Amino acid sequence: MSNKLTELQQKVFDLLDAKPNTDVALADLYSAVYGGGQSDLFPPTNRDMQQKMGPLFARINTKLKRGRIEPGLMKQTYRLTTKKKD
Fold it and tell me: Reduced to 3 states, what is the DSSP secondary structure of residue 56?
């Protein structure tokens, strides 16, 4: 298995890596990756977003050498947890 992130995985990692150890809303991550525009007739629910993003987070975590994507402290958020403290 390659440790290189795919383009989609890299987008998520870059968004989380910009603010390590800080909660990022699931909706922000989803819209950055899948372009969740406001014109959607039926916008995705939080459950839909989690089901689509969860496997992506899991694949990214297996490839990371530092840090880990984990649920954030607030509801419906995720964070890139690193060993360093801000």
Answer: helix
Q: Are strands 68-71 and 77-81 parallel, antiparallel or unpaired?
A: antiparallel
Q: Which residues contact 51 (CB under 8 A, 6 or more apart)?
A: none
SS3 66: coil
Residue 13: which pLDDT band, with cuts at 50, 70 and 90? Answer: very high
Residue type, 5: L
11 contact partners, CB below 8 Å, separation of at least 6 = 32, 33
Distance CA 80, CA 23 (A): 8
Residue 70 has pLDDT above 80, yes or no: yes
